[in-house]
Amino acid sequence: MNPLIRRGIRERLRAKNLVAAGIFSLILTATFYLAAFFDGMQVVLPAESYPSSEPELFFNPVNGAREAFTPLLVLQGFFLMFLGTGRIASVTAEEKESGLLDYQRMTPMSPLAKIFGYLFGLPAREYWMFLVTLPFLLHCVIAGKLPIWNIFHLYAVFFCSVLLYHLTAHVIGLVVPRPRAASWVARLAVLGLYIFLPALGQAGISFLSFLTILPTYFGKILPHLLFEGTQMGRFESQVVQFWQEVPFFSISLSPTTFTFVMQGLILLALFLTGYRKWRLDSLPAFSRPMGLSLFATLQFLLLGSLWPFFSDGLASGLLGSVVQLDPTQVGLPNQLKSDAHPALAMVVVQSTFFLLSIGAILILINICCPNPHRRLKGIQRIKKLGLPAIPWLADEAPGGGFATLLALLAILPYALLHLLAVSSESIVSISSSPSSIIAPASFLLFCTLSLRAAREQWFNLGFWGFVGLLWLTPILACLVLAVNDFLGNSQLMLHLSSLSPLTFIPQLMVHHSPNLLDPANPLVDLSTSVRTGMVASIIGFLSLTLKHWKSSIK
Amino acid sequence: MIEVSDLKIHYGDCVAVNQLSFSVQPGSIFGLIGPNGAGKTSAIKAIATLLEPTYGEILVQGVSVLHQPEKARGFLGYMPDFPPVYEGLKIWEFCDLFAEAYGLHGEQKKAQVLHALHATGLQEHMHALCHTLSRGMRQRALLAKTLVHQPSVLLLDEPAANLDPKSRIDLRNILKSLARDGKTILLSSHVLSEIEDTCDTLGFMQKGKMVLSGTLDKISQARQKQNFLKIRLTKPFPPLEKIISSIPLLSQFEDTGGNGTEVRACMDGGEKEASEVLTRLVEAGVPVSGFAIEKPRIEDLFLELESKPTRKGDQP
Q1: Domain assignment present for A120
Q2: Do A100 and B88 touch (CB under 8 A)?
Q3: What is the CATH number of the domain that holds B239?
Q4: Do B48 and A106 touch (CB under 8 A)?
């Protein structure tokens, strides 16, 4: 057995822990399960069925078990996903700070064995608590007549998700230097990656929905949890329909398959990061080739997910509802054209695409471009070795080429999707003018190169301070202006918000959308604010690059 | 064997270790001494594969720590300056974990764990939980863990920092016994008397540089041309001061005993000159009952180095 797993069992499952945790889990599970079971089992037959008598109460164990399935699953998720993830993040970070992790780092076990040891050893008690719930699950499946194959699907995805959350927590514990920060960053990352990002599936980026257990639960289990003799309601039908198949390019994939693919990709990235950090703590989380591969994969998934929308205008989720809205039933603002919703959907999708890309670029530049210390190290090393320059894929090399490649990798799918939509007969709400590709592409390039210049000349505080100041302050200022006088300040707000990429990208998309704004009823002048944003991005790029160049020479 | 050459470690703009070169032979105990911030811990961490140096080469048993860290780790036993332990494990479980992580199994593992516990005097406490241990006991548990896979190279950062006098003596004996078995031992410490008693070779670090290294005698000889003679008399001999001032090799007469029976004098030269001095004293009728060249004190060297600014190439 892996010695780290054995350590977890010895440390957390001594006899008294075993009994205490077992009883705790048993009481909690029994309470929730039996309460739901008895509640679901009681069926009140309507009085009209028996006009001669009072409404009667019948007991149906099948319904009881079906009712109890979801609370049981939630409880199992609580043990493994909530308690287990927290345990792994905090212990990894604590051991890193105390130096215990260094002892392990120095043993000749492979980094992969160490990662597995931590993933399955640290939450040993949580796995035990999960085990205690299994008899209830067995009862639920048998009594509720649930299809075994679907349950197998669900639990395969459940364990894959557990592994994913635990690995995320472990890697964050390894990457983040301070333990208190690590436990918070781990919680935020799990929330962001597995709750916030999946919500973007409703905005057309369907692949992001498959980071959680929900697609398999809704697609495979929910239809079987209905009470005997009942039909699915409209809402349930829509939910089940949404998760039945995943449109990807021109094919459809099963939600389980797609979930495995998505989670597998993230697991791979996290394993590689964990491997690097276990080998040597001072290495960045990703090497440059790894960063480029990850970003290319992200762009491929974005391309595949958005392909059906840009080629045929097909979309599911909330986006699909917007596209299919009946213009006569919707009250759109006066400044928008009466049939503006397909164009609005297009703006939402394009903006989401760019914001996701720029977010990923920000993270990759932060990780893969060297801060001034790392660069100095590289320079001293090549001087010592007599090399003419730092190899461009090395962690210490200037990141100009890397950042440009990232920008190109984002621009290419956007241009492709745009051209696809222009050539499609079913899409009318897209501009065929070259500026609708060139303007966002140039902005993305300037923004990326500015971020790279900032990363390489400032340390963490300076870099994140710069990003926060430029990206968030204009939005906050707009909020204040909006509260003061929304209509009166609207033009000023547009100018201010054009300084932040987060708000400038949607502006740019609206500006280039041909069927959105009504030219006969202009409230604001978008063209001047777009000009302001473009000029600001060019000035930012030039000044930061010049400053960086000067500091490099020095 | 440890060979460090031209090692440089930066923390941002700060140079923690600067062009450090030294080697430790098998069977030798090398003591790193220096004030806080001299770069001792950084150097030890780099040798332990836990810190990536800016440049330089570190070989452990001929294996490059920078290029083959996984292979080098098999030879290394590292004990940091603060003794963290797995609080929820018993002492034997703590050692067992690392024995297994280093690839030991079955009876061999059991024997090695018991051997390490015995060597560190923890056999009686092996079933105690780590969180119940005192700091000194933790240090012992950590040493047991470090020894459990019988590493050929030991890196000990402040190993005696929390130990009581008895445990320090035990530790010294353990280390000397390990050195006799051919292990290469590198340790750092602030306790100069401990270094003096334990190590056969010393390295003085200051501002990231090794300013002096070698055996204590060699360092002393290189640093100072003068030695101190300790002369003991059977009874006070008043003309002694006059006799000493007449011998050109001697100076700085000092009555250390206070009653004229123990004196100390500074001498130019080594053992040959001391022999000459003794002959002159006996010829002059001085009732000498004891005569010795005073062993150089590590504290004196340390304070002398501390008070001098570092100069480039300040090697013995």
Answers
A1: no
A2: no
A3: 3.30.70.100
A4: yes
Higher pLDDT, A46 or A293: A293
Q: Other CB atoms closer than 10 Å to residue A345's CB: what's the count?
A: 24
Q: How far is B69 from chain A (nearest CA, A)?
A: 8
- The residue written with tokens 């897209």 in the block is A430
B28 inside domain: yes
Residues B199 and B284 in one domain: no
- CB A280 to CB B48 under 8 A? no
Q: Dihedral of CA A322/A308/A199/A363: which sign?
A: negative
Domains of chain A: total:
1
Token pair, residue A524, equals 């604001």
Cβ distance of A380 and B12 shorter than 8 Å = no
Kindly write down the DSSP assignment for every residue of A60-108, as one continuous string. Answer: -HHHHHHHHHHHHHHHHHIIIIIIHHHHHHHHHHHHHHHTHHHHHHHSS
Contact A100 B84 (CB under 8 A): yes
Which of A7, A105, A377 faces B50 most closely, judged by CB atoms? A105
Residue B103 maps to a domain: yes
Specify whether the CB–CB gap between B121 and B58 falls below 8 A.
Answer: no
Q: Which domain holds residue B268?
A: 225-295
Q: Which chain B residue is nearest to residue A372, measuring alpha carbons?
A: B12
Q: Is B8 helix (H, G, I), strand (E, B) or coil?
A: strand
With CB atoms and an 8 Å threshold, state whether B82 touches A384: no
The secondary structure of residue A56, as a DSSP letter, is: E
Whether residue B244 sits in one domain with residue B176: no
SS3 content of chain A, % helix, strand, coil (to 5): 75, 5, 20
Answer yes or no: do B162 and B231 share one domain.
no
Distance CA A218, CA B179 (A): 67
Three-point CA angle A480, A486, A487, nearest 5°: 150
- pLDDT beyond 80 at A242: no
CB contact at 8 A, A218 and A242: yes
Q: What is the pLDDT of residues A30-41, one digit of tens each?
A: 999 999 999 888
Whether B203 shows a pLDDT value over 60: the answer reads yes
Convert the pLDDT of each residue in A372-419 to its tens digit: 888 888 888 888 788 888 888 888 899 999 999 999 999 999 999 999
Q: What chain B residue is nearest to A374 in terms of C-alpha separation?
A: B12
Q: pLDDT tens, A165-213?
A: 899 999 988 887 776 777 678 778 877 877 788 887 777 777 777 788 8
Nearest CA in chain A to B86: A100
Kindly state whether residue B122 falls inside one of the protein's structural domains.
Answer: yes
Helix (H, G, I), strand (E, B) or coil at B148: coil
Among residues of chain A, what percentage have pLDDT more than 70? 90
Residue in chain B closest to A381 (alpha carbons) equals: B55
Residues B69 and B201 in one domain: yes
Token representation of residue B8: 């440089």
> Per-residue pLDDT averaged across A260-267, rounded?
85
Quote the minimal CA–CA distance from A300 to chain B in Å.
Answer: 36
Whether residue A10 and residue B80 make contact (CB cut-off 8 A), yes or no, is no
Residue B31 domain-assigned?
A: yes
* Cα–Cα dist A462/A456, whole Å: 10
Domains in chain B, number: 2
Q: Does A15 touch chain B (CB under 8 A)?
A: no
Q: Please check whether residues B29 and B118 belong to one and the same domain.
A: yes
Does residue B69 belong to the interface with chain A, where contact is any CB pair within 8 Å? yes
For residues A89 and A183, the answer to whether their CB atoms sit within 8 Å is yes
**Host domain of residue A434:** 298-323+336-554
Same-domain status, B195 and B257? no
Residue (of B98, B1, B101, B2) closest to B47 by Cα position:
B2
Of B182, B214, B246, the residue that ends a domain is B214
Inter-chain CB proximity A11 and B74 less than 8 Å? no
- How many CB atoms are closer than 10 A to CB A507? 20
Q: Answer yes or no: is A81 within a domain.
A: no
Dig out the tokens for A136 from the structure: 């209830």
Mutate: best of B13, B47, B50, partner A, most A CBs <10 A: B50
